[in-house]
Amino acid sequence: MEYGRLALVAASALVGFVVLLVLNWLPQRGKTGDPSTLQELIFVYGGTCYHIHHYLLFLPLIGLLWLHRLGDRALYGASGFLLGASLEDLVWSDWYKIRNNCHLDIVSKLPRS
Description:
Elements: H1 3-28, E1 42-45, E2 48-51, H2 54-68, H3 72-87, H4 104-107
Helix pairs in contact: 1-3, 2-3
């Protein structure tokens, strides 16, 4: 990979990481159990909940971007941003836990539309 593309991926990854850090991690610090601040995407199947982390969403999106083949700058920029957004998961202590890592007790009490 040439240095220009590598620099674009690195800069985009840094931006993606910082954006998600500011929008997701900073507002959540110290807030546990408050349904009004709950930010998680969960999948429930057969009574078991699965926490869908950012990297589980964004890494397949990067693969789809590469299959679609955008223009070079857009492809490397978007891939870097999504990579950085995926890396934001590492600031959470439970980044590797998927199964039964949900606030299902809180989610089940939320009003349904």
